[in-house]
Automatic annotation (TrEMBL):
Descriptive protein name: Putative hydrolase
Gene source species: Hyaloscypha variabilis (strain UAMH 11265 / GT02V1 / F)
Keywords, alphabetical: Hydrolase
Pfam family, one: Amidohydro_1
SUPFAM superfamilies xref list: Composite domain of metallo-dependent hydrolases (SSF51338), Metallo-dependent hydrolases (SSF51556)
Annotated Gene3D superfamilies: Amidohydrolase, Urease, subunit C, domain 1
Location of the Amidohydrolase-related domain: 51-357
A molecular function (GO) term: hydrolase activity, acting on carbon-nitrogen (but not peptide) bonds
Amino acid sequence: MDKTIIKNALVFDGHILHTNLAVIIENGLISSVGSSIDTSNAKIIDGTGLTLLPGLIDCHVHLDPDVETASQLLLQLAKAGVTTALDMGHFPGSVRDGLRTRSGIADVRFAGTFATATGSIHSRFRQVTAANLIDDPESAVRFVEDRIAEGADYIKIVADVPGPSQEVVNALVVEARKRGMLTVAHAARKGALGMAQEGKVDIVTHAPLDFPIKEAEAKLMKDEGRVCVPTLIMEETMASRKVFPGLNYAAAKESVTLLHKAGVPILAGTDANQSPMAAVKHGEALHRELELLVDAGLSNEEALRAATSLGAQWFRLADRGVIAVGKRADLVLVGGNPVDNIAATKDVKRVWIAGEEIMLG
């Protein structure tokens, strides 16, 4: 039986909450959404007291370069209701290809590898090679070409001081845009955010941990069509553990509040990784991120959009992020109603990825 019907649940479709809707899954897709459905020859799932959501999207994770370890992390994400993960780290093509052919784990997109510069903090990461070190605009052209050749889904730039010069950041964005590629900039300090803004990147990840942004900076981001993945759970963790001097979570939270008030789209991402220093765990971290976004001023519905439809929209994943006919059947059924209480997303009852139910035990 390849037809599954979920009925009697509340349905948050990626935009708003509905009652009295049933959702039909067939052949990996959502085949019908409505109040009047044919239940013959179908597996019926009673969602009374539950809420059906699009599969959650974590817009910033780091996986392990070992394919088996990465696969386990993607399974961990899936069991937490995260059906799509956007990796922002360093991956060889063979690992990406190996993960994309596996079923029963979160679907994943990749940056390939990130651009930093000689002498930066990121240049000292163990996985960094000469390919990461972009010290002049000519190298920026080659970097973008190489990422496209290896099948990257977007271009990741580490804007930092010390780090790539403004000229290099600008060149990376220009070259990526020429080739239709999105640019994502790591900007965890206010100065780095300024570099990302001047370079006109598409997506800024992190929120400043030193000083809050000003209203004019938030307005500029809105006016130029930029979006933010603030990773507040990572900012909270780094500040509380005093990983570096001068970290201030209040600055990150205030920045998100200002960005939200200015109308800048906020996407949900966690920066989940395996570093014991950070301890931000894949899967469960996204639920905490939603709580922190609400604490920073987003409504519950806005936080849910940040983890569903908005992530899909801005990362050009047109086949997911909403519950609509013809979309991938990436779905999560949770206890209670997260529109009333955002913590309800933690109570994951059932998960489907491309129509295949994931065993949660």
